[in-house]
Every structure is written in structure tokens, then in C-alpha cells.
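[recover] target loaded
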């Protein structure tokens, strides 16, 4: 009775079929090198597990501020960026004012809005998954308080037109630019604007650059907005182990992360080129650590790829994404395995 409202809810779904080659969750495929793990182990062993971590996360924020070239006062930390998305949806504007976002996009904007029963304005991207000004205008007519733009977008992989992101903010809507995949893109992103405009924030995450397991998201904004948002985040939302691990990886492991990102970008270009030569497969250009393909029968190709030991994310059930599969960039041998498997499957269709 008390939770009847939740009976219609579907939880966030991920692909869990066990497969030899897992290219379904946009993770960094490499993992941390042994020497770095040993440094982490040294730190973790000395954690006072009976104690709460620093409630202000001062040292961790210093390290992250240095990593992103901002000040500690510009940062709000989340237990993954999912928590920051939920926080914004909970506190920005009036709860009766809608949240706007283009579709297809990252599903958590919709999930979080539904959890607190906040109205949503979803507006379509065009056929190549770009923003359309007239659709933004139609959405703005519904008087939204908050807008999310994932750029590069998940699941499509493309960057959005920066001028249209600015346009939305210029109209007075609190604009959250979700830059989960920006490390793989050839652009600086919106950090500079987030620091200087009161209604623009940037959301980043450690999940895509190699630390999905520790759950650490970062919101970057001007000092006043950061102070206010920090007031309402759950206390101790970042665990002690996460603090210690992030501190080591973002300092001593910085070069390693950079190297891995460069390899992922090279592998993306190489794999996209190979896949685009397979007949009847369309590949969309990507600025992320994954890319989207379109095939004649998405469900069937997804199933046959699993039989070949390759797991990708089936997107073909989403509106505007018929036949689309999202493929994360893996290690070189995994990408090669995927290309071979896709060739085989397409030949059998
Ligand atoms: C666009 C986008 N934002 C946020 C997230 C969530 O990241 P986190 O692991 O930091 O919660 C994802 C995860 O896939 C994503 O694709």
C-alpha cells in the first residue's frame, strides 16, 4: 500500500549475460597496473575502518581540484555521478517545474525524475542524434527549471552543439552538462562556463577513466552554487576507501590514466574504421569510449554476438534507435574479437 507507486517502476537495467568479451558498460577495459594497486593497498591497510571519513573531504577535493584545474571550493562530490544527478533533480527549482532532456540519452535523468514524481519534458534529437533548436524551443515553452545534456551523449557517442547548450542556459534554465565521456573527446567542455555562470554546472565521473568500482562523481560549478549543493548532499556519501584510492590514483596514477585514455581513443578509431567496412553495418561517429552501430535486425545480431562470446548493449528497443547496438571500446584483442564476431554474424543474417 505504502509503496504502490513503485509497482510500475522498472529499475535501471544493465547487461549481465556472462560473455568472454564484455563491451556493454562503457568501462575502462584495462584496470590498474599492479604497482599502482600495491600503492593503494598500502593506503587502504591503514584506514581506520571504525571511523567516519573527513566530512568535508578536504584532501580529496584538493587532489580532484588539481586534476581538473579548478579550486576546491568549486567541487561537490557524489557517490557516482548518479547521486549528483539525483541531487540536482531533487533541489533545483520548484518540484512542479519540469526537468528537460533530449532523447535518446542516459536513462538516469528520467529514472531520477520519476522517483520524486517530477514532471519531465523529453524532446527528440534528429536522425543523426543532434540537438534541434526548434525542439529545444518547444521544450522551453513548458517552463522547465532544469536541463540535462550528456555531451558526449550516451548511447549515441556524439558531442552536442555547444551553442545550443549555451542557448538553453541563456534562456534561464539551470543547465547541467554531463561530461561523463569528455576525456575521450576533442574538446575542453563547459568547465570554464560552469565556473562563471550561476546556472551552468558540469558533472564528471571517475567511472569511465578506470574507477567505476569506487563510485566517485564530481560536480563543478561556481563557489556559491557549490556551497549550497554541498549543504544538501548526504553526509559521508564518499566512503573512506574511495577517498584513499582516488587520492592515490589521481596523483601517482595520473600518467597511467592518460596513457589508457589515449589507447582507448586510438582503439576506437581503429575499430570504427574496421566496422564501417562491414556490409549493412552503419557506424555513428563517436567522441566517447564506445560507439553506436545500426544493423538490419538489432535483436538478432545482439543474440548472435552473445553466441560468439561478445556482449554489447542492445539499444534497438528505444525510440529512434531501431537496429542500434552500443559497443564499448575494449582492449585491442577484445575489439579484434568483436570485429571478427560481427563479420561472422552479419554474413549469417
Ligand atoms: C552520461 C552518463 N552520465 C552519468 C553516468 C553515471 O556515472 P557514475 O558511474 O559516475 O554514476 C553514466 C554512466 O554510464 C553516463 O553514461
Amino acid at each position: 500500500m505504502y509503496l504502490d507507486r513503485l509497482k510500475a517502476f522498472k529499475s535501471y537495467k544493465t547487461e549481465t549475460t556472462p560473455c568472454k568479451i564484455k563491451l556493454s558498460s562503457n568501462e575502462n577495459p584495462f584496470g590498474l597496473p599492479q604497482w599502482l594497486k600495491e600503492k593503494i593497498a598500502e593506503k587502504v591497510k591503514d584506514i581506520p575502518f571504525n571511523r567516519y571519513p573527513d566530512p568535508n573531504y578536504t584532501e580529496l577535493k584538493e587532489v580532484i581540484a588539481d586534476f581538473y584545474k579548478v579550486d576546491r571550493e568549486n567541487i561537490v562530490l557524489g557517490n557516482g555521478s548518479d547521486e549528483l544527478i539525483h541531487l540536482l533533480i531533487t533541489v533545483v527549482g520548484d518540484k512542479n517545474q519540469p526537468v528537460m532532456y533530449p532523447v535518446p540519452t542516459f536513462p538516469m535523468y528520467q529514472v531520477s525524475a520519476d522517483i520524486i514524481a517530477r514532471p519531465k519534458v523529453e524532446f527528440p534529437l534528429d536522425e543523426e542524434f543532434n540537438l534541434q533548436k526548434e525542439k529545444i524551443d518547444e521544450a522551453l515553452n513548458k517552463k522547465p527549471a532544469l536541463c540535462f545534456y550528456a555531451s558526449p551523449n550516451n548511447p549515441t557517442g556524439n558531442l552536442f552543439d555547444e551553442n545550443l547548450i549555451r542557448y538553453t542556459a541563456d534562456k534561464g534554465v539551470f543547465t547541467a552538462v554531463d561530461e561523463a565521456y569528455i576525456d575521450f573527446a576533442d574538446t575542453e567542455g563547459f568547465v570554464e562556463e560552469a565556473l562563471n555562470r550561476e546556472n551552468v554546472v558540469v558533472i564528471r565521473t571517475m567511472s569511465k577513466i578506470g574507477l567505476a568500482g569506487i563510485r566517485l562523481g564530481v560536480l563543478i560549478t561556481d563557489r556559491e552554487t557549490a556551497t549550497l549543493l554541498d549543504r544538501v548532499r548526504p553526509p559521508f556519501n564518499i566512503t573512506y576507501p574511495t577517498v584513499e584510492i582516488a587520492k592515490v590514483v589521481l596523483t601517482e596514477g595520473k600518467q597511467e590514466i592518460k596513457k589508457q585514455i589515449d589507447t582507448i581513443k586510438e582503439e576506437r578509431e581503429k575499430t570504427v574504421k574496421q566496422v564501417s567496412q562491414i556490409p549493412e553495418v552503419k557506424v555513428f561517429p563517436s567522441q566517447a569510449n564506445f560507439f553506436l552501430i545500426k544493423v538490419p535486425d538489432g535483436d538478432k545480431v545482439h543474440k548472435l554476438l552473445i553466441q560468439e562470446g561478445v556482449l554489447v548493449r542492445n539499444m534497438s528497443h528505444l525510440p529512434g534507435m531501431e537496429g542500434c547496438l552500443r559497443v564499448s571500446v575494449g582492449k585491442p584483442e577484445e575489439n579484434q574479437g568483436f570485429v571478427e564476431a560481427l563479420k561472422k554474424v552479419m554474413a549469417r543474417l
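[recover] notes: The chain has a mean pLDDT of 96.
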